[in-house]
C-alpha cells in the first residue's frame, strides 16, 4: 500500500482501483508553483519478474507518448520506483467511468450516447491515424468528466501496428463481450475495423442497458461474435433514429469489410443524425409556436381562463353554452344583471392588460435573467420584435446580445459540419458564402492566416448591406446578415491573434529584465503561447510544435479563445522539424547552450556585474522552465546542470 508515500515528485493520496496488471492511485505534484493531481499507475509487485508484463507496461507508456488529444487520457511522465517498479503518471480525470454511470442509470438516452459517440470516434480516428488500435474498447475504459467530456483510457493492450505485437499467433486479448469476430478468431492482422465493432457493442449496451450477446463461457461468447446476428436495436429503443440504428448494425457486421471505412466516417454519420434531429425539432417548434401563438400574451406568458374569455368578448365570439339546467328563480341570470356588467368590465380590463405591450425594462430584464444561451436569444428576439424600432441604449445592448449569440450558433454549426467533413452546404445556406467560409476555416486550421483573412473578407462582401444591420429578426434578412456578422467576428479574432503575437515577445523580455520566472500553466492560453515562443527562440521547433498542438486542443472548441487557436496555427506553420532525431538534437542544443552559459558564469561569478549575472540566470531559467517536465534522463541531466550554474550567480 503506497498511500501517503512520496514516489519521486509524486505524493500518493488515495487508491483509485486495481487490476491484474497493477494499481492506480491519485497523486499530486507541484509544477510551476501549482499543485496538479495525476493518476499514477504502478505495476503489481507479483509481475516484476514477468518480462511480457513489463514489456506491455512499457509499451503502454510509449503509446501514450504519441497520443495528445482532448478525448484521450494524457501522459504526464513515466519511470521506475527505486529503479525497479515501473509507473505511468497520467492526467487525473475528475469524473466517472461509463460502466458505473450505466450501472446507476440502467441505460442512457440516444442523444447522450450520440454526444459521447462523436467524441469517442474523434479519439479513435486520431489513434488509428497513428497506427494504434485500442483492442479493449468498453464502458469501463471510457471516463466522463463533470463537464461531459469523454476520455479514452487504458491502452494497456493496444496494438501499435508499427511495432512487433507482444501477443503470440492465434491468441486473443481483450474483454470477451466486446471483442470483434477477428479478435475471437485470433487474427494477427487486426485493423481499425476491430475497434469499430467494439464501438458498436458499446453503443448497443449504452442504449439498451444490456449487451447484444450473453454467454456462460468465453468460448461460447466467441462463437456468438463470430456466428450470431446481433438483435435489432430499434425494437429495444423505441425513439432511436433509424439512421443511428443503421449505423450500429453496420458497426456490428461480422465481415470487417462491411463495416464503416473508419471512425471519421462514424463521426460524420453521428453528426448527420444530430443535424436531422435538430431540423425536425426546429420544424416541430415552429408548428407548435404557430398553434400556441393565439394562446399567449404579447410578453410570452400563457393566457389564463379570464384572458381567453375576455379575448372572445372583444372578438365578438361567444363561449359555447353548456346545456341549460333548471335553477331556482332567484339564481337566474337576469337577477344578477348588475353583477354581469361588472364581470364583463373586468374581462375587458384583463384583455387590455393581455394585449398591452410589456415595457422595455421588463422585457430587457428577461434577457439578463435568462440562464441559458437559448433562453437569452429567445428573450432578446422578443425584445427586438417589440421595441427594436424605438432605438436607444437598451435596444443597442439587446441587439449586441442577439448578434453575438446568433454568430456563436453559426460558428457551432459550421464547426460541427467542418469536423464531419460536410462540405456541401444545406438547402438554407448561400453556396458562395458557405464555400468561402469553408475555405477560411480550412486556412485557419492550417495556420494560413493571410488566406483566411482574404476569404472572410469575401464572406463579408457577399451581403454587405445586410451585414451592416445592427440586428434583424426577419428570417430572409437574418440568413444573409449573419454571414457578415460572422465574418466581422472572425476578422476581429485574426486581428486579436496578430496583436497578441506582437505583444508577447515584449512581455517575455520584461520578465527577463526584471529577473522574474515565467509561470507555466497548461490550462492558460497565454502561458502556453509564451512557452511556444520561448521554445521557438531556443531553437526547439519539435517541442514548440507539440506545445502548439496543446494550445489548439485547449482553445479550438471555445469561440471566446479563438485568437489563441489562430496564433498557435500561425506559429506552427512556420516551424521546421530537425533533420535528425528530435531528442538527439535537443540534448545537443542543451549541451551547447549550457557550455556557453558555464563560460559566461565563470567570468562573472566573482564580480558585481549585476546585468551579466542576471543574463546567466535567465539562460539557466530557460532550460529549467522549458524542460523540467521532460522524463528523458539525458534532458534531466542538463536541467540539473543548469540549476548548478544558476547557483554560481545567485542574486
Describe this structure in words.
This protein has 651 residues and is α+β, with helices and mostly antiparallel strands. Among the domains are: 6-92, 2-Layer Sandwich (Phosphorylase Kinase, domain 1), CATH 3.30.200; 96-277, Transferase(Phosphotransferase) domain 1 (Transferase(Phosphotransferase), domain 1, Orthogonal Bundle), CATH 1.10.510.10; 300-319 and 340-354, no CATH class; 582-648. It is 56% helix and 9% strand. It has 23 helices and 11 strands. The chain has helices spanning 51-66, 98-105, 110-129, 181-184, 192-208, 218-227, 242-251, 263-292, 305-315, 337-355, 360-369, 373-387, 393-419, 431-445, 449-462, 464-467, 475-513, 525-538, 541-555, 562-573, 582-604, 610-627, 633-648, and strands spanning 6-7, 10-18, 22-31, 34-43, 75-81, 85-91, 95-97, 132-133, 142-145, 150-152, 159-160. A 6-stranded antiparallel beta sheet has the order 1-2-3-4-6-5. Strands 7-9-10 form a 3-stranded antiparallel beta sheet. Strands 8-11 form a two-stranded antiparallel sheet. Strand 5 (75-81) and strand 6 form a beta hairpin. Helix 14 packs antiparallel against helix 15 (449-462). The longest helix has 39 residues, at 475-513. The radius of gyration is 32 Å and the shape is globular.
Amino acid at each position: 500500500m503506497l498511500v501517503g508515500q512520496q514516489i519521486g515528485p509524486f505524493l500518493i493520496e488515495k487508491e483509485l482501483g486495481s487490476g491484474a496488471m497493477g494499481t492506480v492511485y491519485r497523486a499530486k505534484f507541484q509544477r510551476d508553483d501549482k499543485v496538479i493531481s495525476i493518476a499514477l499507475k504502478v505495476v503489481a509487485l507479483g509481475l516484476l519478474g514477468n518480462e511480457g508484463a513489463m514489456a506491455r507496461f512499457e509499451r503502454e507508456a510509449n503509446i501514450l507518448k504519441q497520443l495528445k488529444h482532448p478525448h484521450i487520457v494524457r501522459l504526464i511522465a513515466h519511470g521506475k520506483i527505486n529503479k525497479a517498479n515501473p509507473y505511468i503518471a497520467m492526467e487525473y480525470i475528475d469524473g466517472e467511468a461509463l460502466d458505473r454511470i450505466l450501472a446507476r442509470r440502467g441505460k442512457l438516452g440516444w442523444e447522450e450516447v450520440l454526444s459521447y459517440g462523436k467524441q469517442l470516434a474523434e479519439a479513435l480516428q486520431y489513434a488509428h491515424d497513428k497506427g494504434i488500435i485500442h483492442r479493449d474498447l468498453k464502458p469501463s475504459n471510457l471516463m466522463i468528466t463533470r463537464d461531459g467530456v469523454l476520455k479514452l483510457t487504458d491502452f494497456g493492450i493496444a496494438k501499435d501496428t508499427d511495432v512487433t505485437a507482444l501477443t503470440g499467433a492465434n491468441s486473443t486479448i481483450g474483454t470477451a463481450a466486446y471483442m470483434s469476430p477477428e479478435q475471437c478468431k485470433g487474427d494477427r492482422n487486426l485493423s481499425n475495423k476491430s475497434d469499430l465493432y467494439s464501438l458498436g457493442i458499446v453503443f448497443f449496451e449504452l442504449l439498451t442497458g444490456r449487451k447484444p450477446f450473453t454467454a456462460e463461457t468465453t468460448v461460447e461468447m466467441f462463437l456468438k461474435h463470430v456466428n450470431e446476428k446481433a438483435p435489432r436495436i430499434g425494437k429495444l429503443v423505441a425513439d432511436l433514429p433509424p439512421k443511428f440504428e443503421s449505423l450500429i448494425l453496420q458497426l456490428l457486421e461480422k465481415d470487417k469489410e462491411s463495416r464503416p471505412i473508419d471512425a471519421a466516417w462514424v463521426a460524420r454519420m453521428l453528426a448527420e443524425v444530430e443535424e436531422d434531429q435538430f431540423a425536425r425539432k426546429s420544424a416541430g417548434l415552429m408548428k407548435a409556436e404557430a398553434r400556441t401563438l393565439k394562446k399567449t400574451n404579447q410578453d410570452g406568458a400563457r393566457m389564463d381562463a379570464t384572458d381567453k374569455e375576455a379575448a372572445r368578448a372583444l372578438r365578438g365570439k361567444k363561449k359555447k353554452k353548456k346545456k341549460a339546467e333548471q335553477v331556482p328563480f332567484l339564481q337566474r341570470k337576469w337577477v344578477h344583471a348588475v353583477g354581469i356588467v361588472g364581470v364583463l368590465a373586468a374581462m375587458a380590463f384583463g384583455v387590455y392588460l393581455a394585449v398591452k405591450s410589456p415595457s422595455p425594462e421588463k422585457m430587457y430584464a428577461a434577457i439578463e435573467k435568462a440562464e441559458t444561451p437559448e433562453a437569452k436569444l429567445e428573450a432578446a428576439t422578443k425584445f427586438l420584435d417589440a421595441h427594436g424600432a424605438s432605438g436607444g441604449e437598451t435596444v443597442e445592448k439587446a441587439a449586441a446580445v442577439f448578434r453575438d449569440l446568433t454568430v456563436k450558433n453559426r460558428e457551432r454549426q459550421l464547426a460541427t459540419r467542418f469536423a464531419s467533413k460536410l462540405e456541401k452546404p444545406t438547402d438554407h445556406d448561400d453556396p458562395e458564402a458557405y464555400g468561402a467560409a469553408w475555405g477560411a476555416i480550412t486556412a485557419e486550421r492550417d495556420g494560413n492566416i493571410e488566406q483566411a483573412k482574404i476569404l472572410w473578407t469575401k464572406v463579408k462582401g457577399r451581403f454587405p448591406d445586410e451585414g451592416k444591420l445592427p440586428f434583424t429578426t426577419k428570417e430572409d434578412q437574418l440568413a444573409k446578415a449573419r454571414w457578415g456578422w460572422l465574418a466581422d467576428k472572425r476578422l476581429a479574432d485574426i486581428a486579436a491573434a496578430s496583436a497578441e503575437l506582437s505583444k508577447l515577445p515584449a512581455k517575455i523580455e520584461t520578465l527577463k529584465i526584471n529577473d522574474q520566472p515565467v509561470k507555466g500553466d497548461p490550462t492558460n492560453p497565454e502561458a502556453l503561447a509564451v512557452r511556444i515562443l520561448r521554445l521557438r527562440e531556443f531553437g526547439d521547433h519539435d517541442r514548440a510544435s507539440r506545445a502548439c498542438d496543446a494550445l489548439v486542443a485547449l482553445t479550438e472548441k471555445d469561440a471566446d479563445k479563438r485568437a489563441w487557436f489562430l496564433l498557435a496555427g500561425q506559429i506552427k506553420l512556420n516551424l521546421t522539424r530537425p533533420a535528425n532525431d528530435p531528442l538527439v538534437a535537443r540534448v545537443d542544443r542543451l549541451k551547447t547552450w549550457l557550455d556557453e552559459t558555464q563560460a559566461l558564469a565563470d567570468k562573472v561569478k566573482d564580480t558585481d556585474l549585476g546585468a551579466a549575472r542576471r543574463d546567466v540566470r535567465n539562460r539557466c531559467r530557460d532550460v529549467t522552465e522549458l524542460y523540467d517536465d521532460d522524463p528523458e534522463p539525458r534532458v534531466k541531466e542538463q536541467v540539473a546542470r543548469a540549476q548548478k550554474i544558476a547557483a554560481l550567480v545567485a542574486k
